[in-house]
Amino acid sequence: MTDKADTAWAVPSEAGTTAGHARAADRNGVSREADPGVEPPRTETGGRRAAPRGVAVALFFVAVVVACSAAIDGFATYDNVTVIASSSMVIAVASLGQLLAVISGGFDLSVGGVVPLAAVTFAVLTGHGFGVLPATVLTLMVGMASGLVNGVVVGIFKINALIGTLATMSITGGLAYVVTGGLTVQVDPRAGVLGDPLWLDLPGFVWLGLALIVGTHLVLRYTIFGRRIYMIGGNSQAALLAGVRVSVVTTAVYLFSGVLSALAGVMAASQLLAATGGVGTGTTLTSLAAVVLGGAALTGGRGGVFGAVMGVALLGVLNDALNLLRLPSFYQQIVVGGVLLLTVGIGRLQELSAERWPLVRSRS
After folding, report:
1. Of 203, 177, 166, 190, nearest in space to 121 by CA
2. Which of 42, 149, 208, 353 gives a 20 to 30 Å CA spacing to 113?
3. Are strands 185-186 and 274-275 parallel, antiparallel or unpaired?
């Protein structure tokens, strides 16, 4: 027999099995699932657990940092560390929303439209005399509206996430240029308080992003809402039979993704003290790459905050190293794409190895 943790992760032959686990978890208030950020064990043959891809990415990240520190002048300095942290945190916050969507079995392409729309909205509002807090709240409401549209389209009307969020990305990205008239909008330095250095000379939005990372991890791992996101991504029909309101949870997921994308736009505007309709347009692909690098499955039901953050950190270090080497941006795209294929390929080989040569566990 497999142990209880393995049984909770095993793919049931009937939907009712998963439903029974879900009811037991909700009734007792304690999840019987394994760590959501770790790949499920191979239970079909009592096999071994493949190494979590987030750990593999972390080891590769360390190797890249060591190599770049030895080979590139100016890389291993504290000033450069602050640059990497500042440039990566905007992507990290957007990736948290992307992670929620991917775990639930979808993805959010509208990130690349909401980020620039939020950035220009914040810049315009502060330029018209709004305080930082009111402007931020109104900007987050823009992201909330976009996320609500995505949630209704995907969660309630069951339109494919690719089509629904692609349409939203097109609309929000176009609105970003409409708001600015295609021009660059300056942000008053007094309104860019999130970009001001705080403790350890790191900008305020970096510390805010770290708090959001911890909060998202706690939600996914220790709350009923987080467990239901994994249930829906793993098997939405079984989750529905278990009594989970799939459409409501899915709508909430895209709502949170929209808010986090809008906050990433505010961070970008505070950092640059300027905003255009083109700022952050590449966030969609970068956030998806980071989430997949960290071990999330595009089929849903698997992923974790640690892996996503390590994916963001790896991409941030690579981009910084290539900038210090003064390589053109198109070379950076090639390198990042190659690393993505390499890391995902290694993770897949680990999975196939665990399936083909299972480790027979001793029975007590």
Report:
1. 177
2. 208
3. antiparallel
